[in-house]
Structures are given as C-alpha cells and as structure tokens.
Amino acid sequence: MGDVAVGARSGHDGEEHRGRPVGAADPAADGAVTSGNDPGAAGDGDGSGGRPPTDGQGSGGASLQSKKQRSFWKELPILIGIALVLALLIKTFLVQAFSIPSDSMQNTLQQGDRVLVDKLTPWFGSEPERGEVVVFHDPDQWLAGEPTPDPNALQTFLSWIGLMPSAEEKDLIKRVVGVGGDTIQCEGTGPLTVNGKALNEPYVYPGNTPCSQDDQGGQFKVKVPEGKIWVMGDHRQNSRDSRYNQSDKNHGMVPVNEVVGRAIVIAWPINRWDNLPVPDTFDQNLSARSAALTVAPQGLALAGAVPLVLWRRQRIKAAQTR
Q1: Which of 104, 212, 239, 242 is the catalytic position?
Q2: Any bridge partners for residue 261, and if so which?
Q3: For the chain, first and last CA: distance in Å?
Q4: Could you tell me the sign of the dihedral formed by the alpha carbons of 177, 180, 182, 186, in that order?
Q5: Which helix or strand (DSSP H or E) is residue 31 part of?
Q6: Residue pLDDT, tens place only, 147-190
Q7: Among residues 164, 142, 169, 146, which one has the least CA distance to residue 154?
C-alpha cells in the first residue's frame, strides 16, 4: 500500500515539475512517509509540517523525559532531609518509641514490646496522674549495674530519628500510683491503699499480691511530696520500683521533671496493638484533700457543739441557784 502511495505522488510530481526526471526522489514525498527519527526529515523543515512530534519519541520528548528524571533525583535528597527533620521534631515534641527491656510491667507490657510515648502534653504543663504508665529518666542510679547495649550503626541512626530508643538513655517505665500530697501504704499482702482507700488492681501480674511481704521495702507507708510521683511495676514481685529505692536522694520518689511522657499505645508487635488507658480503680475519688474534707465537717460540728453545751450548762446551773 505504501508503494502505491509513493508511485502516485511521484507520477503527479513528474507532471508538475517538468524539469525533474520521473524516477528522481522528491524530498517532499520522502518526508511524507518517513518517521520523525529519519535524518532527512530532521533536515527538511517541511517534513514535519511545522508541528512538533506528538508521540514523545522525538529528540524533544527524550530531552523532556531526561529533565524530569534529573529533577526527581535532585529533589530526592531534599525530600529525605525534610522527612528526617519532621522525624526529629516528632521525636522531640510529639511522640517517641521506646522498647520494653524487662518483665517488670507484665502482663500489661511484655519484654520486647514497643510503646509510643506522648511527649506533647508535658510541654503544656500537664503532669502525670494516678494510673498512667509513664517513661522517666533514671532518677538516681536505679539502673546501676544493668548492662548497657552496644548498638550498631543502623540502630544508632534509627534511635537518632526516634524510631528506636537510644542505648545511651537510662529510662524506666512504671505505673504512677501516687502524686504529690498522697499517702501510699502497703500492709501484709495488700491491698495497696491511696489516702486510705483500697485499690482494686486487676492489672497486677497473675499470682502476685498487690503488696510484697519483705523487709527490703515491700511494707511501707509514705507521703509523696509535691512535684514528685510514686511508681510501681505491675509485676509486683519482679519490679525494682519506688519501694526498693527509698534510700536514694529522692526517697524512692520520681521528680516530675524527670518524666519523659505517658505511654499511650503498644505499637509493636502487630498482634499486641493496644492502647494503655487508666484503669477504672483510679476513677474513685482518691484525693488527699477530699479525705481531709470528710473529717473536717465532723471536727467543725464538734467544735461548734462544745460552746453550746457549756452555755446550756451555765444556764441550768444559774436556774438551780435561784
């Protein structure tokens, strides 16, 4: 079919351009049937009819594609840099991942779990509350003698951007039992009491008692100073917490400014995805102030009744002497 088209054009051109041999090749006719990649067509301005190639296969299309590829590879380092900056900002101000290194919080947390810790709310003045699971810096050599891991380059990088905990940081994770002003007490095997009110603790490790019967700190009665918290592990008989650090400079308390944040969710492994809510037992009114107020009305009533009784006795005595 192509041969017929060429022959037809050639015959027509032979009649129109009489000075040209019939068998001579007409550049215009060749340009009409050759591709845009043909050198002859590129050299002949009429071959393309003044229109740019539309199939993207010409030199112009290849150049555009090359520029797009080059621009992507130039932008890739910028995108990676932005991602790293965002990761560092998130780690510093929003959330950070921590790994659970021990069994002290079983069964709430298992060794090897990864938890996400909320670091944002402390920036707005929020302080730890009873029942929360918190991560805090070692207040005074609680981890003395514990082995320090030696991370490889990848682990160091991941900890730097917040995807893994830093091996250099000495952090612990426990449950807040008491806050400033609270009186915490353990007698016998329990229950644990806060301001005289017993806690029902279903999160305590099965087989453990809420209080430990030993002379190392398991039996205690302490009042938590303002600005500090009292923490305990859920695996009561396998947790070196506030009870067993009462000889340190903070008397077992953790300063609030040493708290990194609250653990809000178990992020890894996938089959353990879960949030970490405050247990219902802490919904009761445990405030030390409320305990004082329940006694105050009785005291006021007694104080008001004494003058009244004395006044009545004076009147009765006066009436009898008349």
Answers
A1: 104
A2: 135
A3: 149
A4: positive
A5: helix 27-33
A6: 666 666 776 666 666 556 555 568 999 999 999 999 999 999 99
A7: 164
How far, in whole angstroms, is CA 130 from its chain's centroid? 20
Choose the catalytic residue: 119, 174, 212, 242.
Answer: 174
| Cis, bond preceding 250 (omega within 30 deg of 0) | no
Q: Is 104 assigned a catalytic role?
A: yes
- The beta strand positions in the chain, using DSSP E, are 95-99, 114-118, 133-137, 171-178, 183-186, 193-194, 197-198, 220-223, 228-232, 254-255, 259-268, 274-275
Residue with the two structure tokens 């000495």 = 170
Residue 205 contacts residue 106 (beta carbons within 8 Å): yes
Considering only 93-102, 179-188, 222-231, 298-307, which range has the smallest mean pLDDT? Answer: 298-307
Q: Which is nearest to 130 in space by CA: 192, 68, 176?
A: 176
**Secondary structure (3-state) at 160:** helix
**Is residue 265 a contact partner of residue 115, using CB atoms and an 8 Å limit?**
yes
Peptide bond preceding 269 in cis form (omega within 30 of 0): yes
3-class SS of residue 83? helix
C-alpha–C-alpha distance, residues 192 and 209, integer Å: 10
Question: Cα–Cα distance between 273 and 109 in angstroms, integer?
Answer: 11
- Told to judge if 228 belongs to the known catalytic residues of this protein, a careful annotator would answer no
Give the CA distances from residue 315 to residues 8, 303, 305, in Å, rounded to whole numbers and listed in that order.
144, 20, 16
